[in-house]
Amino acid sequence: MKFQRRVMGALMAAAVLAPALGGCTSFGDQESDLAIAELTPSQHELLVESVASVRQIAGIGEVSATAIASELWESAVMVQVDVSEGFASEQTRAIAATMNRASDNDREPLLPAAFTIRVAGDAAGSFRVATLGLDPDVVVNNFTYWQAIEEAAGTELNMILFPSGFDDGVYSRIVSAPGGVPSHETITQFIDNYDAIAAIVPLQASDGNLFSNGSNGGNGGYEGWSLPGLSANGPLPPKEVIELVDEISQFVPLQENSWYDLGEDLPEYSPEGVTVRWTDDDTVVQGRDVSIFSGEYREEDWPAIVAAAAGTTTLPGLDFRYFSFEREFRFHVSPCDGSIEQTADDQLLFDALSASGIASVEDIAPGFCTPDYY
Questions:
Q1: Are 150 and 162 in contact (CB under 8 A)?
Q2: pLDDT value for 312
């Protein structure tokens, strides 16, 4: 459970985190000349040997290594491999098996490496494994799953696997939109092709978001979706949740939520905009809300704030929060099983919703609810 909270907590905080690949250097065929402070001499040797072995896999395209400078990554180096479209799955299995030799090598410490696979012809999407050690069958089954979701959605996507680190076969996988892809385009594709995507996503356990599906690899794990304007912990959210993202985007820009795309061309990150947070687990406290962040409150934004809050009320069970450094407007699902923090601005929003005639305020109340924890 600690692993679930760590990884999924990071996912749900994507709207306010901005990890980047700082000072990155692509080393191409010069791995023997690498200078990464985090690598010991034995790890450096393992890296050189691993990259050389990957290059020997039949049909493999370009292979390169890049230093990672991000506290959210336990790995110090990213190995990026281009695979051919026709033999992508077979080559992915071979890459995973080859890289894993550095994880069960008798030389200590082991290589802190991740790897990225890009398919020839793809402009933006990528498949990543955050650390070494996952069974190659698990890796390739998830690779196939990622490709199937891309095909169903009609748009390129990223997927990243986070092994638990406990040698138990459990892992998290997170689907996100690549940086640079128009945010509204991704959401539109998910709405238009929702049934096709939902038919691919495996069923999850009812007591959380642990999936177990042999066709998608190993002992299963935890799934999340980090799309523009949407941060979901668990299986694919209901279609109406994604439609709410689309509706609110008419008034407020979507947060990109593409921070898992740690490529060399990562765009400048801006946390401004809206994110709908969703969890499939009804027992999670404060797991469903609409959050808007703005670096500056502007009077002309007030109609958009009210419209976004009104849209939030159309989906039961969602809290709402608009935050800027000058003003903050909030409402919570009522009743509150805890203490309520309420300001004049919270009441102002609630009154505006009541007077609008387009929002149902029967199940909400002004302010922020802090639940009692037992």
A1: no
A2: 96
SS3 116: strand
Nearest CA-CA partner of 129 in 96, 83, 166: 96
Quick one: pLDDT at residue 30?
A: 52
Residues of the chain with pLDDT under 70: 1-35, 69-73, 104-109, 165-169, 203-220, 257-270, 374
Whose tokens are 């919703």? That residue is: 353
Tokens standing for residue 306: 């009210």
Residues 274/319, Cβ–Cβ less than 8 Å: no
Q: Compute the distance between CA of residue 122 and CA of residue 291 in angstroms, rounded to an integer.
A: 32
Task: List the one residue out of 372, 374, 373, 311 whose CA is nearest residue 339.
Answer: 372
63, 79 Cβ separation under 8 angstroms: yes
Q: Looking at this protein, which amino acid is placed at residue 228?
A: P
Are residues 227 and 255 in contact, defined by beta-carbon separation less than 8 angstroms?
Answer: no
> Which uninterrupted H or E stretch holds 81?
strand 77-83
120 SS3 class: coil
- Compute the chain's Rg from CA coordinates: 22
Distance CA 312, CA 260 (A): 27
Q: How far apart are CA 183 and CA 288, in angstroms?
A: 21
Contact 32, 48 (CB under 8 A): yes
In the prediction, which pLDDT does 21 show? 31
